[in-house]
């Protein structure tokens, strides 16, 4: 497991509870010492007692020795550089598993595309875990469902079996494109919903953003070859609802601060962990423009974050767009 942050630690708990031995590879020696000595990661999952099957190291070679699953839980924009260092150490037959919900800046590539390129592995050696998976709730072993996606149904089933617990129910899917895009775009929509909440625009506004955000996600996904039904499932609607509704969502929280009048710098400084939607919004907008797909909510979020657009003007921009059929663009 590469990445000992909130989600990486929570998924380590899932795998260990399902009967898998897990080695967390962390950058910080103090996290490693805490995990090994006290069975806790007090910086990212304070108060959660980690299973005995979870141990930690700072050495990538130690973490990778004999690994059947190599789980990647680093931030989206650091994946390429990190994986380039780890790639020579990867076991030949291991399944590379992405927990990352983002799109790479510059290349507009999804995380599995980055993994395949950097590690030089075929599609059937890569998988994604996604869905309504707020890390703290999973670490607390509250009920949650998820999607394990791979182009190989057999590999997806192996990971499904390795991560099924009484509180974590994984389903399989072969639509990797749809599952990844659902996870990446929901962060951007959560920023928009958070802005609306910070401005106290009400539940109608929130519901409208969630619904139109889902339409935006599906438009782009279908253009890239995704199954439209994926966006009605856990990787689409499920993840979107959880991220837009919960105060545990980092992206939603950043949006709330922006809507309440904070500057972008101050809103980000108040967030101790990465809000993936902030960087990925730019790459998602670029990806949509490459394929001539209309993504008005994403455009407004990017303008608020990077072009000094006031949130109130963003609302006006969305509300005064030309009217059209609800299924426009489908």
Q: Choose one word for the global shape.
A: globular
Overall helicity = 40-55%
User: What is the CATH superfamily classification of the largest domain?
Assistant: NAD(P)-binding Rossmann-like Domain
Instruction: Give a count of the beta strands, DSSP E runs of length 2 or more.
Output: 7
Quote the CATH topology of the largest domain: Rossmann fold
The share of residues in extended strands comes to 5-15%
Briefly note the structural class of the backbone.
alpha/beta
**Number of contiguous helices:** 15
Order of helices and strands: HEHEHEHEHEHEHEHHHHHHHH
Distance between the termini: 39 Å
**Number of separate domains:** 2
Word description of this protein:
The protein has 330 residues and is α/β, with parallel strands linked by helices. It has 15 helices and 7 strands. It has helices at residues 6-17, 29-38, 60-64, 79-86, 111-119, 135-139, 153-163, 176-198, 203-223, 234-245, 250-259, 264-269, 276-290, 296-306, 311-319, and strands at residues 22-25, 54-57, 69-72, 95-98, 126-130, 144-149, 168-173. The strands form 2 sheets. The chain has a 5-stranded mixed sheet with strand order 3-4-5-6-7, with helices on both faces. A two-stranded parallel ribbon has the order 1-2. Helix 4 links the parallel strand 3 (69-72) and strand 4. Helix 8 (176-198) crosses helix 14 (296-306).
